Amino acid sequence: MAAIPVEDRLLRLLGGDGLIQELVQHAGAAEAGAIDSDGFVVEVDASLLLAEDPELGAALLGDADGVLTQRLRAAAQRRMAEAGAKAEAPWLCLRLVNPPVPLMAPSEAARLAARHGGALVSVLGVVSGLGPPLQRVASRRLCCPFCLASCDVPGGAAVMPCCACDTADAEEDVSRRLVTTVQQLWLSDVRNNAAGGAGYGVSGAPLLVRASGDLAACFSLGAAVQVVGFASQRAAPAAPPAPAGGEAELEASSAAPFAPQRLWRAPGSGAAAAASALAEVAAGAGGPLGAALALFEAATGLDADPLVALALLASAAAAASAAAAAAAAADASGAAARRGEGPAARRRQVNVLVLHDEGAPQALRLLRAAAQLLSPQASCLPLGQAEQVLPIVKQQRGAGAGAGGPSVFTSALSAANAGVAVVDAAALAPKAQKQLAAALPQAGLPAAGAPGVVVPQTATVWAACGHSDLIPSDPLAAAGAAGGRRSGRPTVSSAGFDLVLADGSDEAQLLWGPGRGGHGGGAAGSVPPDHAAALLRHVIASAAGAPAPPVVSADAHDFLTLYAAALRQSTPLPAPQAELLDALARVARGAAALRGASEAAAAPDAALAVLLVDASVVSRMAGSYQSVIDLLGGAADLSSAAAARRGVDGHLAALHAQALPLLRQFGGGGGDGDGSGWGGGDEGQGGWRGADAAAEGFGLALSGGESDADD
Predict the structure, then answer these.
(1) 513 CA to centre of own chain
(2) Could you give all domains of the chain from N- to C-terminal order, each with its CATH number?
(3) Which of 38, 218, 373, 675 would be a feasible disulfide site paired with 180, CB 3.0-4.6 Å?
(4) CB atoms < 10 A from the CB of 664, how many?
(5) What is the pTM of this model?
(6) From CA 529, how far away is CA 507, in angstroms rounded?
(7) In terms of C-beta density within 10 A (0-12 exposed, 13-18 middle, 19 or more buried), how is residue 527 classed?
């Protein structure tokens, strides 16, 4: 019996008659002008294909030049003709997913391409540059003038596999030429350089990537992406303004957003062991927030201000959750979401500004240590003379592969779009300070000189400056403010920062080295720093791996609304009320993500959000605001003896119970919260619980999406 051709076997595995019917419908719609598409996309699970047909799988995984894809199209054309269709088969775009190859950095892929050209790779990197969209011939119809045979070949091919005449005089049927859009971009390694104190969050010789068809719109500047494709040496040096270094290129077969924090999740049985260890620490600390604080201090060796440390922990968890939400939005909403357009562009990150005493800027050391611990990707600003905030636009010079428009590259800020940017705010040039203040509230930044290009602004910013460098939100306080570090007046705006907190850490200890003690009640005192760091990173990875970000519960929403009403009645608001409500909701969701909960509860999540935002209002108003929470006395102090006795989670539950009737006096009405938080036995609130934690690897199963309570 004759062997079945490999293309027919592939066609059968990809759907057979069902696929042919879809191709017929697609071709008919294209001829009628109902669709405008570069081709028909077929997703192929490479690992599953290898398991079902090893020979066929190996042939497809080695099809770097696209010959098998063209043969598949020819087979589909024959089947379509047999079915009575007269239309041409569309160009087939095979998107290889789940390849049986290890995930690697762009620099590793470049080295592999130097040794094994045409190797299939799976690369995780940061988009550090975008070239202008180009047009490229994807397929050509060649005809033999001798035997009159014709066949479709990849765009750059000159040999007809269907003809035995062995002629170089094949003629092209230009009417059958297929042209597709190609996006040229550069991928760099994910990098955390917070310990160095300066530099971008990307590194390594950039890998040139070419994405065609529907993949051309899958990439945004600064995004972390996983790209599957065939790596090879560059045929020619890249034309300016391509980055210097690197001689490898990658023809993308598939691409998807990827949260780098997910790499920190403990694999296999390690997840259950991490969950068990987290539950043990949480039991000793009185809850997951107290455990996170204790682990933070054990990992860094710093006795940080508990309010500032909790703010950074919630912010890091919110960043991880936002990365997961961005990936889900990209899958659901397509190219518009990836470009930062539409509902998916809603800001989720929690930006934190820490104020320190003059002449003692040790808060920057705390921020760098936290970024090194809690984010796999980090940048530090300022950075020499490089662009700090706005995207870098370079015009194409001369003809070449990148001709056709400007190329856009990451600034120091957008290089951290999938992570954290640590900013010495007072050290920025005045122009960069104004750009940062204008950029942070935005979902995207226009690239001046590149019309139509908008770079998403998704970096989480942790900044530090002196008290006198901050421009107070109270006009009377601003008129009498002392001069900042760089000039005789304050220069740092709090615009775009959700939290503005005065750092109460031990400055000498932050400057001279680690200390012991902490606010976790000794819960993590016996945990080695490396193990504490691994547990915290598992927490962050779990937030990134959640199917959806936490939502705000009805009770939490009521509590936050009551506080906002009380704040509005007690002082001129330092920001529009909608911004304050959004900040409250973002912080509450970040705290819930830190706990591994699917829902932000009234306690401890909303209580922590109120505590942090209220402290921020005090800082923004330069002391002219009498805090409503201060009326509760020691209930608001996480460093108090009562907080140490109850634990952070129990103290926040007590704060909620005491604040609720007080806030109702201001705003009236409110929720029915009873002050019971994570430790109160309500399984629905989530957290690091024994059996569930062991089963899920971290916390309860996460589910849900946005809710009306968020608004």
Answers:
(1) 32
(2) 1-100 (3.30.1640.10), 262-348+528-711 (no CATH)
(3) 38
(4) 16
(5) 0.83
(6) 21
(7) buried
